[in-house]
């Protein structure tokens, strides 16, 4: 059958074919992005191109202050001149915002010649900036979660809420670094560390864009450390610092996260405004990194080229455009001068090259094509469906979980936390109730919506909960103290919530008081107004006081750390923050937050970030001013500790964790390899908990001054009570490199150390709140049986004012046991075997927190115990017999040093050369940090590539910064004492009845000197004990008191071997020296020229009395000796 095609059919087919052929390439979703951009660009006029480079505003066509009245003329104007985007981050109802956005998008797509969709923009720093949208906690708190997976979930929730109102682009995440804590915008950052900020910025970017919302990573670049901490001030630095510190986290979020837009920053870097920095925006971002999308200025950022930079003259918009656009800042945000409106004139005059304009516009179009806006320009939902997406129960639960994981327990003295559910609680403080203490970038009036700390505690408690404000946050008025004190006295425990405060996005710009936020910068990190006095007043009631810092940055009140029963940091909360806080306080959630930023003792110690260069903070020697006015002089600083009060990565848990068996997947690796590091983490408590495994890398020897170590991997793991998890983390060797002297990025050959830090559940001080003593069977010694002895011990300690806060009762607890005294003619075994061990461990803890190596710990103990070391009547390695050691051995014995070097390179030998000299290691030994778990890797030549060699995969833990777990300390002391203990036991078994003679002396300990206790070559160790002077003095006096109590116990003893004479002589030296301290030390004004101990009371022999009386003849000489020893 023959079919005949009619003329009409032929004509219809021709028309259809012609229509298909005429469909623009840029509208074809199957065409490549390059082809679509090229096709659209050649169809656009100069005016249309310029409009794609300028931001518009919803207020250009919608009167948001007058019931949303619509202006058609305004819409047509903004779409013809500022068509890049429509800003919507204003206080308007969700329905109004959505309808206003739809008006703009419908017009852009359907009423303009090319139908180019517009961006509908909003803020998304810690939640979608819209009325009734879910408010998450501030970024500085989110950083403390160390949980990228949860951050990505948050970003997805934020994107879902934004899309429901038609918003398709959010100004987030912020990937600045909090390196200048006076800066008001610290709260907007993920913290001080580049790796952490990069990982969380990547997760945030990925979460937004996987949901179809364009992320806008900001601020590019180096914005977080303005001079003097003042917003938009210049940032000083060089090329190496820019590339090593500021750019890596941005690159992670931008390139790996695939962000479709970037916001440039307000500041200048090394004198060049970043908004017009061709090297930064083009040579690095585009030419080196290969970034294809666009960069937009911050609000009014381009206008700063006129004022304050004074690069362009007043009113010279052409200059502004020619500075910013060719440099690589493609789009101009509103809030300034709209200088880019001069682009058509500049093109016409020939001053601006069309290629520069086309390049900028092509980047914008590429972003819109990549996001899929041409195919799906509108995502808004119907009015009645908005709350199926906005502020859902699921999103609020997520906000509470993230907030709880971000809360950091800084102190928990005597395990006050978690609180008992039936306890009566007095909630006090201006941040506790009455408004919600959010950070900046929340919508107007948000402070009146959300769960306050009081709300959360009241909901969780089974007891009585009261609220008393106590004072206003902005006032010095203390008239409310009496009511607050009364409330605390009537309760079982007080929870005091104080801190800093910010303002919402309307109030922030109205000049209202605040202490953080954009353009709110400070000179001090102390609590302001009446708040510190309120905290002191509540603590002084004697009721257990839990202090909660609700803030946007660290607070420097070290006295609160010592005096409060517990200290909790909750950076600006989410709308569910009150419930999150209560879940931590009551133990419903085991705290797992770790600090994303370090805490200084005072603003004068800034910068305080942990990853300082090797040459920084090399020899802290702080002084102090005591409450009674006594001044202890130091050198750096003269009257302040320059090290961190709490360091990055620190945070306590209600569980205890042990790290062990750290291993690397390979002993050698090239610079392009990835090493998998595994570590066994054990939950040794009875409570399930989460721990953050943090891996740091140290370049042992480098061609330039590099950070002492840097975070390169982390993972949060949940571990059930009593169980062990093997955690694996991949480390890219390429990330271990540096920018060398030729400004080339290289991974140098040589040794690298991979360190794992334990920060959970640690006591900070070696004097305050010592761990309880245990008896020979490992049980705690209960000192409550002998109140008289405890009172006597405390009275003796009180005489040492200003050191009356020394808690000696726990240390003297074994002396209260009559059975111990009956069995042992001298000090009880628990006293010697456990107390001194604990003191040594706590000394090590302090050294690690204060960033001091353990050779200084060894030197500290040597110095504390005097030039001629004293020993108790019974020491830990002599189970049944009295053992006395001479000055060459006792310090090592007390620390229980090991004979074998941990890296298997043989024994270390050394000798004690007298006053102030260090015990030097043998040849080939090297000092290292023993309190962290670490693997050692090396870079070696391998043809054209470098290799990483694993030198040792299972070494003792090395200190990094801050505190470490008690389990680490136990392994150090218990494991390392085995060699000398076995040596002594073998000697005893050979001749169990033999006693060391004067000639024979003690077992030779010189071979047991561990290399970690050797001072580095060239260091004059006799000039510094490596510990704050006031704590050293506390220890000296405490040790002297031990000897005095020892004399009391030894009085009347029937059996002492023939070394007793020497023991008395050693005691004489310690007592002698301690009395001299009373006359010429910091407490000399209270001694009044008299002995601060009773010679007769302690049963001192006439020989000792005579020796001390002889010494008194020349107190000036003694004072000089004492000062020399202290130095």
TrEMBL record:
SMART domains: Fn3_like (SM01217)
EC number(s) reported in the record: 3.2.1.21
Gene3D superfamilies (alphabetical): Glycoside hydrolase family 3 C-terminal domain, Glycoside hydrolase, family 3, N-terminal domain, Immunoglobulins
Biased composition annotated in UniProt, kind: Basic and acidic residues: 952-964, 1095-1108
Recorded catalytic activity of this chain's protein: Hydrolysis of terminal, non-reducing beta-D-glucosyl residues with release of beta-D-glucose
Domain of life (superkingdom): Eukaryota
Residues spanning the signal sequence: 1-19
Protein name according to UniProt: beta-glucosidase
Organism: Emericellopsis cladophorae
């Amino acid at each position: 059958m023959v079919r005949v095609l009619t003329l009409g059919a032929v004509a219809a087919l021709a028309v259809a074919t012609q229509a298909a052929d005429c469909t623009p390439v840029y509208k074809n979703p199957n065409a490549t992005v390059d082809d679509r951009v090229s096709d659209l660009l050649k169809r656009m006029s100069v005016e249309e191109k310029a409009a794609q480079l300028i931001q518009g505003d919803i207020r250009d066509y919608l009167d948001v202050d007058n019931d949303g009245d619509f202006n058609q003329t305004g819409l047509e104007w903004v779409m013809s001149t500022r068509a890049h985007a429509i800003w919507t981050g204003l206080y308007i109802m969700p329905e109004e915002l959505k309808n206003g956005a739809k008006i703009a998008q419908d017009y852009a797509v359907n009423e303009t010649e090319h139908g180019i969709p517009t961006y509908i923009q909003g803020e998304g720093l810690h939640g979608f900036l819209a009325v009734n949208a879910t408010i998450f906690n501030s970024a500085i708190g989110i950083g403390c979660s160390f949980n990228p997976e949860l951050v990505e979930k948050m970003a997805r929730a934020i994107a879902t809420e934004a899309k429901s109102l038609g918003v398709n682009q959010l100004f987030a995440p912020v990937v600045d670094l909090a390196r200048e804590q006076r800066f008001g915008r610290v709260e907007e950052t993920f913290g001080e560390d580049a790796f952490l900020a990069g990982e969380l910025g990547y997760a945030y970017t990925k979460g937004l864009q996987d949901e179809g919302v364009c992320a806008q990573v900001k601020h590019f670049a180096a914005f977080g450390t303005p001079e003097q901490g003042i917003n938009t001030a210049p940032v000083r630095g060089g090329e190496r610092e820019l590339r090593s510190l500021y750019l890596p986290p941005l690159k992670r979020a931008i390139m790996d996260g695939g962000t479709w837009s970037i916001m440039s920053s307000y500041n200048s870097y090394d004198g060049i405004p970043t908004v017009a920095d061709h090297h930064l925006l083009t040579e690095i971002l585009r030419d080196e990194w290969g970034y294809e999308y666009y960069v937009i200025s911050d609000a009014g950022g381009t206008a700063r080229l006129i004022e304050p930079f004074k690069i362009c003259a007043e009113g010279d918009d052409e200059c502004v455009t020619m500075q910013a656009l060719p440099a690589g800042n493609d789009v101009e945000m509103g809030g300034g001068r709209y200088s880019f409106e001069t682009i058509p004139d500049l093109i016409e005059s020939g001053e601006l090259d069309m290629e520069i304009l086309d390049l900028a516009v092509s980047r914008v179009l590429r972003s819109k094509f990549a996001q899929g806006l041409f195919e799906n320009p509108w995502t808004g939902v119907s009015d009645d469906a908005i709350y199926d997406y906005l502020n859902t129960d699921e999103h609020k639960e997520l906000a509470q979980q993230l907030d709880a994981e971000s809360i950091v327990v800084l102190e928990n003295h005597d395990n006050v936390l978690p609180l008992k559910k039936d306890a009566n609680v007095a909630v006090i403080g201006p941040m506790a109730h009455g408004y919600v203490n959010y950070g900046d970038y929340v919508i107007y009036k948000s402070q009146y919506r959300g769960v306050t700390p009081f709300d959360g505690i009241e909901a969780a408690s089974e007891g009585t909960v009261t609220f008393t404000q106590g004072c206003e946050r902005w006032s010095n008025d203390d008239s409310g103290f009496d009511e607050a004190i009364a409330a605390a006295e009537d309760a079982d425990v007080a929870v005091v919530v104080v801190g800093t405060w910010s303002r919402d996005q309307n109030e922030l710009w109205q000049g209202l008081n605040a202490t953080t936020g954009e353009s709110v910068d400070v000179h001090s990190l102390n609590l302001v107004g009446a708040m510190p006095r309120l905290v002191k007043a509540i603590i002084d009631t004697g009721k257990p006081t839990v202090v909660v810092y609700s803030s946007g940055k660290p607070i420097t009140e070290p006295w609160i750390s010592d005096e409060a029963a517990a200290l909790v940091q909750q950076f600006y909360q989410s709308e569910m923050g009150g419930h999150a806080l209560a879940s931590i306080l009551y133990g419903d959630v085991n705290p797992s937050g770790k600090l994303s930023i370090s805490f200084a003792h005072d603003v004068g110690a800034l910068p305080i970030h942990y990853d300082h260069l090797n040459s920084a903070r090399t020899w802290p020697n702080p002084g102090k001013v005591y409450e009674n006015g006594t001044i202890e002089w130091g050198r750096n600083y003269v009257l302040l500790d320059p090290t961190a009060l709490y360091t990055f990565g620190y945070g306590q848990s209600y569980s205890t964790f042990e790290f062990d068996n750290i291993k690397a997947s390979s002993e050698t690796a090239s610079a392009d390899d990835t090493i998998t590091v595994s570590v066994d983490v054990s939950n040794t408590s009875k409570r399930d908990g989460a721990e953050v495994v943090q891996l740091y890398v140290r370049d042992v020897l480098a061609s330039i001054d590099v950070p002492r170590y840097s975070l390169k991997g982390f993972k949060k793991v949940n571990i059930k009570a009593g169980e062990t998890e093997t955690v694996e983390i991949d480390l890219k060797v390429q990330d271990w490199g540096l920018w060398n002297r030729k400004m080339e990025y290289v991974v140098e050959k040589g040794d690298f150390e991979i360190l794992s830090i334990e920060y959970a559940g640690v006591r900070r001080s070696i004097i305050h709140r010592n761990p309880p003593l245990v008896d020979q069977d490992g049980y705690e010694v209960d000192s409550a049986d002998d109140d008289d002895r405890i009172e006597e011990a405390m009275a003796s300690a009180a005489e040492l004012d200003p050191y009356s806060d020394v808690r000696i009762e726990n240390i003297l607890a074994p002396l209260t046991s009559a059975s111990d005294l009956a069995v042992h003619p001298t000090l009880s075994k628990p006293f010697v075997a456990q107390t001194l061990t604990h003191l040594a461990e706590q000394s090590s803890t302090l050294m690690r927190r204060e960033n001091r190596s353990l050779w200084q710990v060894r030197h500290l103990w040597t110095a504390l115990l005097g030039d001629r070391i004293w020993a108790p009547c019974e020491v830990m390695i002599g189970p049944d017999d009295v053992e006395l050691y001479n000055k060459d051995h006792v310090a090592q014995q007390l620390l229980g040093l090991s004979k074998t070097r941990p890296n298997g390179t043989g024994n270390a030998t050394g000798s004690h050369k007298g006053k102030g000299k260090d015990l030097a290691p043998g040849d080939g030994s090297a000092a290292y940090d023993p309190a962290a778990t670490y693997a050692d890797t090396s870079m070696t030549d391998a043809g054209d590539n470098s290799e990483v060699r694993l030198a040792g995969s299972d070494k003792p833990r090395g200190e990094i910064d801050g505190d470490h777990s008690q389990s680490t300390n136990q392994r150090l002391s218990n494991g390392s004492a085995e060699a000398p203990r076995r040596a002594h036991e073998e000697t005893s078994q050979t001749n169990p009845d033999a006693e060391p003679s004067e000639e024979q002396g003690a077992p030779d300990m010189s071979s047991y000197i561990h290399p970690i206790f050797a001072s580095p070559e060239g260091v004059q160790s006799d000039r510094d004990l490596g510990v704050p002077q006031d704590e050293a003095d506390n220890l000296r006096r405490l040790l002297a008191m031990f000897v005095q109590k020892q004399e009391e116990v030894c009085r009347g003893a029937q059996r002492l071997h023939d070394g007793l004479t020497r023991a008395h002589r050693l005691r004489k030296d310690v007592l002698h020296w301690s009395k001299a301290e009373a006359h010429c030390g910091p407490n000399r004004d209270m001694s009044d020229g008299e002995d601060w101990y009773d010679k007769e009371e302690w049963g001192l022999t006439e020989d000792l009395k005579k020796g001390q009386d002889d010494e008194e003849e020349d107190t000036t000489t003694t004072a000089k000796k004492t000062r020399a020893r202290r130095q």
